[in-house]
Amino acid sequence: MPVDHTKNIITVKNVSFSYDNVIVLKDINLTIHQGDYLGIIGPNGSGKTTLLKIMLGLIKPAAGEVKLFGQSIAKFKDWSKIGYVPQKAINFDLLFPATVYEVVAMGRYGNKGLLRQLDKKDDAIIKESLCRVEMYNFKDRQIGDLSSGQQQRVFIARALAAEPEVIFLDEPTVGVDLKAQEQFYTLLKKLNLEFGITLVMISHDLDMVAKEVTELACVNQNLTYHQDPKKCISGDHIHKLYGENTSFILHKH
Amino acid sequence: MFEFFQYGFIIRGLEAGILIGIIAPLVGMFLVLRHYSLIADTLAHVSLAGVAIGLLLNINPLITALCAATISSLAIERLRISKKIYGETALSIFLSGSLALAVVLIGLAHGFNVDLFSYLFGSIMTVKQIDIYIILILGLIIAGLLIAFYKELVYVSFDEEAAKVSGIPVKLFNNLFILLAATLIALAIPIVGILLVSALLVLPVVTALQLKKSFKATMLWAEFFSLISVLGGIIISFYLNLSSGGVIVLIMLSIFGLVLLLKRNSR
Fold first, then answer.
1. CB-based contact (8 Å) between B81 and chain A?
2. For residue B122, is it left (φ>0), alpha (ψ between -120 and 50) or beta?
3. Within an 8 Å CB–CB cutoff, is residue A96 touching chain B?
4. Is the Cβ pair A79, B165 closer than 8 Å?
C-alpha cells in the first residue's frame, strides 16, 4: 500500500468534553495523516484517553466534530479500517477461557459481519497476523498464561487481523517489562514503516515516546501539536504540561 | 428400572431436564464471563413474582414467569448502562422488590401454598405436557440465537470496547443476551426451582473453567457436567424421594469439588 503522508485520515475539529461540569478537553484540533506515528502524551487526568475514545466513537464529544477517512464519525461504517488496542490491564480478564488463536480471531469478527462464520481466508489472515507479531508458536496457549509483553503482542495481532489502516493504542506498555517494551516498540516501528499502518499511541512514557514517534501531541485540556517530537521534549513544553518542578531526563539508549 | 418409565411425570421431567441441561451452560458461560452471575438470581426472584401472578389469575405460571423475567431483564440492563446507580444495587432492588410483590400476591390468595413450595425448590412433578412444548420451542430459539451470534457474543464478553470499535452493535447484543438469559431462567424454574436456578447456570461453567481449555472446549465440558448432573439428579431424586433441584445442584457441587481436588493433586 503506497503511503500518502499528505492525506488526512482523521480530523478532530473544535472538540470539547466535560464530565460532571469538569472540563476535560477544551477546543481540541488535530489532524492525523496517513502513515503518521503519533504519540499523545499528557499527565494523569489530562484527557488523553478521553480524546482517544472520542476519536473511536466510544464517547460523544460535547462540542466539535470528528471525521474518520473524510466521513463524519456518526455516519462512518467502515470500522475494519480501525484497529484498537485498549488499556489491557483494565479490560482484560485473565481467567477468560480463550486461546491466543481465539483472541486474534475476534479481530476478524467485525469484517465478517453478522451470521457469517470465519472461513479459510480468515484463518490464513489470523495466522499471518500471529506471525507478524512473532506469536504463531503460542497460538494454542491460553491467553491468561502468557507474560504481559506476549499478551500485548497478541492484542496487536488481534488489531492486525482486521487489516486496519490505523491502529489506536492506549498506554500499550503499562505492566510490560523493559526488554519486552523494546521489542514492542520495534514491532510498532515495523508496522508503521513496512506495512504503512498509521499509529496513534497514548503514553505517559515521555522519553520513550519522543524517541519512537514521528509526531507528538501534548494534551492537558488543551492540545499542542509538534511535528518534531524531540523539540517538544527539549523545550519548556514539558514544564507547561507537567508543572515547573518536573525534571526530565533523556535516556540515551 | 422399568417402573421408572411407567410414570408420565418422570418422563416429562427427564425431557424438560435434558432440554434445560443442554441450554443452561450456553447461557451460563456468557453470564459467568461477563460477571453477571447475580443477574440469574435476581431474574429468578422476578420469575417468582410472575409465578404468583399466574397462580392468582389462573394462567399457566410458566407464561407469566416468562413475561415478568423478560420485561425486568431489559429494565435491569437499562439501569446498568445508565450508571445512575451501581449495577449490583439495581439487582438488589429488583430482587427484593419482586420478592415483596410475590409475598403480597401470595397473601392475597390463600390456598396455593402447596404448589408454591415446588416453585421455590423445583419439582419435576409440576411439569405439564404443555410446558414441555414451551420449553422445547423457546429452548430451540435460545440455542439457535446463541449459536448464530456466537462470535459477536464472545467478542462483547471478552472486550466490549474493542468489539464496539470493530463495528459490532454492542448494545443490541447486550439486550438480546439478557433477554435470552431471562427466558431460560423462567423456563428452568420447574426443574431446579427459583432458589437454585443460578446454580444450574453457573456451576457447570465454573467447573469447566477450572480445566483451562479453549472457549469451545470449555463450553463442551460445561455441557457434559450439566447433563450428567441433571440426569443423575432426576433419577436419584426419584428413587430416594428427594427434591430434584436440590439433588441436581448437590451433584454439580460435588463435581466442582472433585475437579478442584484433581487439579490440586496434579500440580
1. no
2. left
3. yes
4. yes
> B147 at the A interface (CB within 8 A)?
no
Reduced 3-state DSSP string for chain A: CCCCCCCEEEEEEEEEEEECCEEEEEEEEEEEECCCEEEEECCCCCCHHHHHHHHCCCCCCCEEEEEECCEECCCCCCHHHEEEECCHHHHCCCCCCCEHHHHHHHHHHHHHCCCCCCCHHHHHHHHHHHHHCCCHHHCCCEHHHCCHHHHHHHHHHHHHHCCCCEEEEECCCCCCCHHHHHHHHHHHHHHHHCCCCEEEEEECCHHHHHHHCCEEEEEECEEEEECCHHHHHHCCHHHHHHCCCCCCCCCCC
B161 vs A109: CB contact, 8 Å cut-off?
A: no
Interface contact flag, B166 A142, Cβ < 8 Å: no
Q: Report pLDDT for A250.
A: 47
Report the residue of B33, B35, B84, B166 to disrupt the A interface, i.e. the one with the largest count of A CBs within 10 Å.
Answer: B166
Write the pLDDT tens digit of every residue in A22-75.
Answer: 899 999 999 999 999 999 998 888 899 999 999 999 999 999 999 999 999 999
Which residue among B148, B151, B209 places its CB closest to the CB of A97? B209
Q: Which of A45-49, B2-6, B67-71, B139-143 has the lowest mean pLDDT?
A: B2-6
CA distance B140 to B144: 6
Report pLDDT for A68. Answer: 96
Q: Say whether A109 and B158 touch across the interface (CB within 8 A).
A: no
Write down the ipTM of this complex. 0.90
Find the closest chain B residue to A113 by CA distance: B168
Cell numbers linked to A37: 506515528
Task: Quote the minimal CA–CA distance from A21 to chain B in Å.
Answer: 16
> How does pLDDT run across B120-154, given as a tens digit for each residue?
887 777 788 898 999 999 999 999 999 999 999 99
DSSP-derived secondary structure letter, B193: -
Query: Smallest Cα–Cα separation from B234: which of B254, B249, B253, B255?
Result: B249
* pLDDT tens per residue, range A84-119: 998 865 567 888 999 999 999 999 999 998 889 999
CB contact under 8 A, B212 and A97: yes
pLDDT given for residue A252 in this prediction: 43
Q: Is B162 close to A77, i.e. CB distance below 8 A?
A: no
Cβ–Cβ < 8 Å for A202, A171? yes
Q: Per the structure block, which three cell numbers stand in for B70?
A: 423478560
Q: Does B186 touch chain A (CB under 8 A)?
A: no
Q: Does B167 touch chain A (CB under 8 A)?
A: yes
